[in-house]
Amino acid sequence: MKTEGGSDAAKRRAGERAAEAVEDGDVVGLGTGSTTAYAIDAIGRAVADGLAVRGIPTSFQSRRLALEVGIPLTTLDAVEAVDLAIDGADQVVDAPDARTDGALIKGGGAAHAREKIVDATADRFVVVADPSKLTDRLERPIPLEVLPDAHTVVADRVREFGGDPTLRDASHKDGPIVTDNGNLVLDCAFGSIEDPGELATRLSSVPGVVEHGLFVGMADTTYVGTDDGVEIREY
Ligand SMILES: O=C[C@H](O)[C@H](O)[C@H](O)COP(=O)(O)O
């Protein structure tokens, strides 16, 4: 399940603007998805021009892209710190007066478990988005990466919480998608979410949930690519 909408030009502007924040010597978390791919491309061009960085990919796909564009790679256990993480989102709360401002739903590409580890570790977490991702309240289904043996019991718990879980199917394989970590994904509709932090805590408490796609209080900045520029949100 991927987010519909959002022009490629807007995604490109957001991704390229975020890549400009990368400094010589940085360790950079490389998120997953079509918007972050523009940032990875731009970092690759900067590396070709002499920028010294090391990237930590958050998925098979971002690793593959980073290798293609020539970004030297490392791992979390080989570095002392991650300076910056650049990552996309499926929804971003854009409500400056609300305490939920900057809360995210991620995992449309089923990469949110590794993404959350890297994004949470980074000194600075920059989100790249186009205007189609902005919302007053989070309302898309929340992806839950679950251990395969636990998918029915986790689904039962999600229903107890008022959610409607759907096992995510693969598009070019019979049966469910399998994550980079060998797990399954339940997309859990909760309607319009009033308190993402409270729901995040509940979902994290369910045995069998490896990680959920609510990223609350994590983002430092969002670059929103538009048709003619980039808007910046700081949190
Ligand atoms: O699992 C995937 C990630 O969370 C992506 O960052 C998210 O789905 C946004 O991807 P895109 O930039 O392609 O809309």
UniProtKB/TrEMBL annotation:
Keywords: Isomerase. GO terms for cellular component: cytosol. Pathway: Carbohydrate degradation; pentose phosphate pathway; D-ribose 5-phosphate from D-ribulose 5-phosphate (non-oxidative stage): step 1/1. Signal peptide: none annotated. The active site is at E115. It catalyses: aldehydo-D-ribose 5-phosphate = D-ribulose 5-phosphate. One of its GO terms (biological process) is D-ribose metabolic process. Catalyzes the reversible conversion of ribose-5-phosphate to ribulose 5-phosphate. HAMAP family: Rib_5P_isom_A (MF_00170). This is Ribose-5-phosphate isomerase A. The lineage of its organism: Archaea, Methanobacteriati, Methanobacteriota, Stenosarchaea group, Halobacteria. The gene is rpiA.
